């Protein structure tokens, strides 16, 4: 077996769908010796901002000298990005070894009448095995979908849970109100364990989370965004104060990243309360060193090309607000590709009005929406629109429309950022 064989085997589990529930992952992990037990875990759920908050917390833990596992999804360019220790991808050889072991255990499961693990359950199991074998001091664990029935929620005793923004996404699965969605996210709250929540959640969502916290005797800590002060742009990022933490620096674009960083600070404070040796300087260095791909990421300065993973209406609105603030008056051309199951009509309404142009494209993914279908939606909000037959042609059209001083921003899905980055490397000699 080689790396490609291992990834193909994991991907082949997609035929078993995405089944929410914990019985199957418990069965699988039980056969593997329950590697998830006795880990010091930060568990993160939410609609948007999960990945960024996970990255900030990981940065802080690493700055404090902790050997830190990180589990996120999906990946951008290589499958092994999902599972990292100290921000280094799981080695191909380790992945192959774990897949071999999984094959043996899956046979035991199916021979015994149990269900075949899903794609995400396999990912989760590999992450836990790798983190245990490597002896991680801490693990930052991002949920895949929702929280209550997500396979990561097999963990029993996290040091702290974290819930970022609550918005409308995956409504067919999580529910059609913010209260219902918040209930699913709040499912990661464990009895007696604290939870950090985003500072300006919708009241309906916050009430549900606080009620869950009360029922589970869990202290709810809310990031206090009112204590953010003197926030100013600085070197493709921001300098700001947060309460007693003065002169903090982040190098991620968009003022929402200040909020995400403050959520991470609150999580770090709880880690300290639970025995972690994290200083103010560790928090400062951890935030400053954090980078996270695909989040208003500038991949070329000349021409200016930005890629962003926004895939729901809330994120689209945040992206547009950030671009207008960071690049006031600049001509912006969007390249937009989405999945069929996303609320692309509201996404377009949030991001397209006022754009100099839009090029729609179909990402190379089985759930992707046809570019021509998306074009009809986008046309309601912008006159200068066209569709690209391929991602390469879409980028060429967008660059032509942007002109010398314009900006091209790709958005709508993570699933074609790798293709965009590949195009930039081939056309302009690498990510700048």
What's a quick, concise take on this entry?
The protein is of the alpha/beta class and 432 residues long.
Sequence stretches where pLDDT stays below 50 over 5 or more residues: none
Strand content: 15-25%
How much helix, percentage-wise, in residues? Answer: 40-55%
CATH class designation of the largest domain: Alpha Beta
- The number of domains: 2
Describe the protein in words.
Strand 14 (332-336), helix 12 (344-351) and strand 15 form a beta-alpha-beta unit. The protein has an eight-stranded mixed sheet, sandwiched between helices. The protein has a six-stranded mixed sheet with strand order 12-13-17-14-15-16. Helix 1 (3-12) runs parallel beside helix 4, helix 3 crosses helix 10 and helix 4 (92-111) crosses helix 5 (119-134). The mean pLDDT is 95. The protein starts with a helix and ends with a helix. The protein is globular. It is 41% helix and 16% strand. The protein folds into two domains: 3-289, UDP-N-acetylmuramoyl-L-alanine:D-glutamate ligase; 297-428, Protein-Tyrosine Phosphatase, Chain A, CATH 3.90.190. With 432 residues, the protein is α/β, with parallel strands linked by helices. The longest helix has 20 residues, at 92-111.
Using brief descriptors, characterize the structure shown.
16% strand; eight-stranded mixed beta sheet; Protein-Tyrosine Phosphatase, Chain A; alpha/beta; 432 residues
